[in-house]
Specification:
Structural class: alpha/beta
Radius of gyration: 21 Å
Number of domains: 2
Number of strands: 12
CATH superfamily of the largest domain: Glycogen Phosphorylase B
Oligomer: single chain
Strand order of the largest sheet: 3-4-2-1-5-6-7-8
Helix content: 25-40%
CATH topology of the largest domain: Rossmann fold
Strand content: 15-25%
CATH class of the largest domain: Alpha Beta
CATH architecture of the largest domain: 3-Layer(aba) Sandwich
Largest sheet: 8 strands, mixed
Distance between the termini: 72 Å
Order of helices and strands: EHEEEHHEHEHHEHEEHEHEE
Number of helices: 9
């Protein structure tokens, strides 16, 4: 039987997550038949399609709320849709291995019935959810303990753990109690076709220096710190730095509001570009960093 793998990812659509895409393509190149189960999102609304030979199924997205209750709902809601889809995929295509990409850490629950059928579970550890919760809400408490418990159960029912770095490997062996032989570091990187391009001085908006942020925009990502840095640069009297943020996420509107409230827009330039599969681009040009006059 051809080796078949199901990759389950719940915090973003395929192929938007480059790590998941690279893993799926690497498996395919090594002779595996790969199916991906993920949520729908803007630009990725097709329920089923085949991308570069990877079979993709998408279920409705459950948006994360800004409260702790909303956070918990976003962790639990994908369980129900994914469980039904997994049975459909198993009966229609089959799989011998499930690779669960967190968050959330409850993916192992929908895999348990399949383990009785001989399916192996690989935990692909993207985020340390207990620490992520503490970072977002600045507290621990009962829900923090629940997340620690889910993480430990995930480790317990995993046949193999893929860690993104050495720190996550240490979590698996120390907090998860796994043998080091069952934990592997798999790093991510740019596609081999990635080529350096010539600098574009226009992106500096006439300044000698450019500070850039590329990534997700959520509470735990620290963009409030970036804004505070821009304010400090302003207060130091610097006029030679331009700040640009590239990305999107739940805190995009809040970032825009912080920039307006702290008078960091320069000539009013804080804009969002791109749609569909292209990331949003937010250019934050501080008035404090423009030459007087």
């Amino acid at each position: 039987m051809k080796r078949k793998v199901l990759i389950v990812v719940e915090n973003g659509p395929y192929p938007a997550d480059t790590r998941v895409r690279n893993e799926a393509l690497a498996l395919q190149r090594n002779g595996y038949e790969v199916t991906v189960l993920c949520p729908q999102d803007s630009g990725f609304t097709q329920v089923h399609e085949v991308i570069d030979g990877i079979r993709v199924y998408r279920h409705p997205q459950f948006k994360q709320g800004g409260t702790r209750t909303g956070y918990c709902w976003s962790m639990a809601a994908p369980y129900f849709g994914s469980f039904l889809y997994m049975w459909w995929i198993y009966l229609r295509h089959g799989f011998r291995v499930v690779q669960g990409c967190n968050p959330p850490d409850d993916i192992f629950l929908i895999v348990l019935p399949f383990k009785l059928l001989g399916v192996k579970y690989i935990f692909d550890h993207h985020d340390a959810n207990p620490e992520l919760y503490e970072s977002k809400y600045n507290k621990r408490g009962f829900l923090y303990k629940v997340l620690v418990g889910l993480e430990r159960l995930t480790y317990r029912f995993s046949d193999v753990v893929i860690a993104t770095n050495a720190s996550y490997r240490d979590l698996a062996t120390a907090r998860g109690g796994l043998a080091s032989d069952d934990v592997f570091i798999v790093r991510n990187g740019p596609d081999e076709s990635f080529k350096a391009v010539s600098p574009n001085p226009a992106l500096k908006h006439g300044k000698p220096y450019l500070v850039g942020y590329v990534g997700n925009m959520d509470i735990q990502d620290g963009l409030d710190i970036l804004v505070d840095v821009a304010v400090r640069v302003k207060n130091l009297g610097r006029r030679d730095v331009h700040f640009t943020c590239v990305g999107g996420g739940p805190q995009l509107a809040e970032l825009q509001k912080m920039v307006r409230d702290k008078d960091l827009r320069g000539n009013g330039q804080l804009h969002r570009q791109g749609s569909g599969q292209r990331p949003a681009r937010n250019s934050l040009d501080s008035r404090c960093m423009r030459k007087p006059g």
